[in-house]
Amino acid sequence: MCDRVREGILVGCGNPLLDISAVVPLNFLQKYSMNEDDAILAEDRHMPIYGELVEGYQAEFLAGGSVQNSLRIAQWILRQPRVAVFFGCVGEDRYANILKEKAQAAGLDVHYQVKKDVPTGTCAVLITGTHRSLCANLAAANNFTIDHLEEPSNKALVDNAQYYYISGFFLTVNPPSIMQVAATAHAKQRPFLMNLSAPFISQFYMAPLLAALPYVDIIFGNEAEAQAFAEAQQWPSGDLREIGKRLVAMEKKNPTRPRIAILTQGCDPVLLIQQDSVQEFPVTKLAVHEIVDTNGAGDAFVGGFLSQFVQGKSLDVCIRCGNYAAGHIIKNPGCTYSGEPEFVE
């Protein structure tokens, strides 16, 4: 059983998306000019997809978006509600109500900013056999503004937290909010964690990423994201350990707490890179028949990590729990879990 931790100890900011998931035939993908395993942003031609899934297929709803996923997983492992507070932007519509209901059922304390004239962000999750194709319409999630964090009740929640986690995806939405949370963490000498999130963040949003990085105590990423960062920085790419060492050595506002990089590489060992060491943590390989869906494994890894980190556990325990959570999620469709968590420290 987990140690009891204080409510609101962890704050996350990200893009809240309602995942609308359904098993569909191949010609459904073709109708929307999509391929199996696509992960795309919706264009105008994709907009009818969400209504069609709800009306014509047995669609399931899930509170999605990268940070919200990670916090849900952390809550599942902690088995104690309202440890994590989540900020993001939704519309004023039915989907926002479903999203809030699902997130709260998972134990999250959600404080959505509501924009009346924009629909809630959605992600169509199209399952064809063992393939899973994603089509995301960020919609309201794109409209988050810093004044939401400056409302007294929300500011109190941010000030009250001991740990802060933000995805690189949020750099596309509202960098000033990220900088405000980062500055709060720095002023209070509390850990600020961030995720590289996707190669396109390093390719197209490097300026806000570099602005936030000096505040980052722990940076997460997978091999593709780390390579993209290295290429954008014109570093010699290829050696993940070397990229991690360079990431750790970049400028930091609080040099008394050296940065840590945690880089995942699928079924290969997770790398924990600190100033003077690189450690490997093996990943339990699953049999082919056990793998249902690898999507969401990265979010789950961070969720598992955070569940132990907010309890003050050692980094090796945090990483082992990250690996446990990712392994569990892979055996389930989407970023979902089943049963009680079985992580043993």
Automatic annotation (TrEMBL):
<dbReference type="GO" id="GO:0006166">
    <property type="term" value="P:purine ribonucleoside salvage"/>
</dbReference>
<feature type="active site" description="Proton acceptor">
    <location>
        <position position="299"/>
    </location>
</feature>
<dbReference type="InterPro" id="IPR029056">
    <property type="entry name" value="Ribokinase-like"/>
</dbReference>
<keyword id="KW-0539">Nucleus</keyword>
<comment type="function">
    <text>ATP dependent phosphorylation of adenosine and other related nucleoside analogs to monophosphate derivatives.</text>
</comment>
<dbReference type="InterPro" id="IPR002173">
    <property type="entry name" value="Carboh/pur_kinase_PfkB_CS"/>
</dbReference>
<dbReference type="Pfam" id="PF00294">
    <property type="entry name" value="PfkB"/>
</dbReference>
<dbReference type="GO" id="GO:0004001">
    <property type="term" value="F:adenosine kinase activity"/>
</dbReference>
<dbReference type="GO" id="GO:0005524">
    <property type="term" value="F:ATP binding"/>
</dbReference>
<keyword id="KW-0460">Magnesium</keyword>
<keyword id="KW-0418">Kinase</keyword>
<keyword id="KW-0808">Transferase</keyword>
<feature type="domain" description="Carbohydrate kinase PfkB">
    <location>
        <begin position="37"/>
        <end position="338"/>
    </location>
</feature>
<dbReference type="InterPro" id="IPR001805">
    <property type="entry name" value="Adenokinase"/>
</dbReference>
<dbReference type="GO" id="GO:0044209">
    <property type="term" value="P:AMP salvage"/>
</dbReference>
<dbReference type="GO" id="GO:0005829">
    <property type="term" value="C:cytosol"/>
</dbReference>
<dbReference type="GO" id="GO:0006167">
    <property type="term" value="P:AMP biosynthetic process"/>
</dbReference>
<keyword id="KW-0067">ATP-binding</keyword>
<dbReference type="GO" id="GO:0005634">
    <property type="term" value="C:nucleus"/>
</dbReference>
<keyword id="KW-0547">Nucleotide-binding</keyword>
<protein>
    <recommendedName>
        <fullName>Adenosine kinase</fullName>
        <ecNumber>2.7.1.20</ecNumber>
    </recommendedName>
</protein>
<keyword id="KW-0660">Purine salvage</keyword>
<comment type="similarity">
    <text>Belongs to the carbohydrate kinase PfkB family.</text>
</comment>
<comment type="pathway">
    <text>Purine metabolism; AMP biosynthesis via salvage pathway; AMP from adenosine: step 1/1.</text>
</comment>
<dbReference type="GO" id="GO:0005654">
    <property type="term" value="C:nucleoplasm"/>
</dbReference>
<comment type="subunit">
    <text>Monomer.</text>
</comment>
<dbReference type="GO" id="GO:0006144">
    <property type="term" value="P:purine nucleobase metabolic process"/>
</dbReference>
<dbReference type="InterPro" id="IPR011611">
    <property type="entry name" value="PfkB_dom"/>
</dbReference>
